[in-house]
Amino acid sequence: VECWGDSTSGRLGNGLPDPEGAPVYGPEPVVGIAGARRISAGADHSCALLADFTVACWGLGGEGRLGDGTTYDRPVAVAVGRLDQAVGVSAGSRSTCAVRGDGTAWCWGFNDDGRLGDGSRYWSLLPVQVRRVSSAIAVSTGDAHACVILGDGSIRCWGHAPDGETGDGVTGDHLQPVAVVQFPQATGAPSIALRSGAVLAGSDAPVRVSWTTGDGLGLGIASHEVARSVDLGATYVPVGTAATAAFSGYAPTTIGVRFQARALDTGGYPGAWGESPVRYVRLAQQSAATFKGTWVSVSGASCSACSGGSAMASATAGASASWTAVARSVAVVATKGPNMGRITIYVDGVSAGTVDLYRAAALGKVVVFARNYGVAGTHTVRVVVQGTAGRPRVELDAFVLLK
Question: How far apart are CA 386 and CA 400, in angstroms?
Answer without folding.
Answer: 22
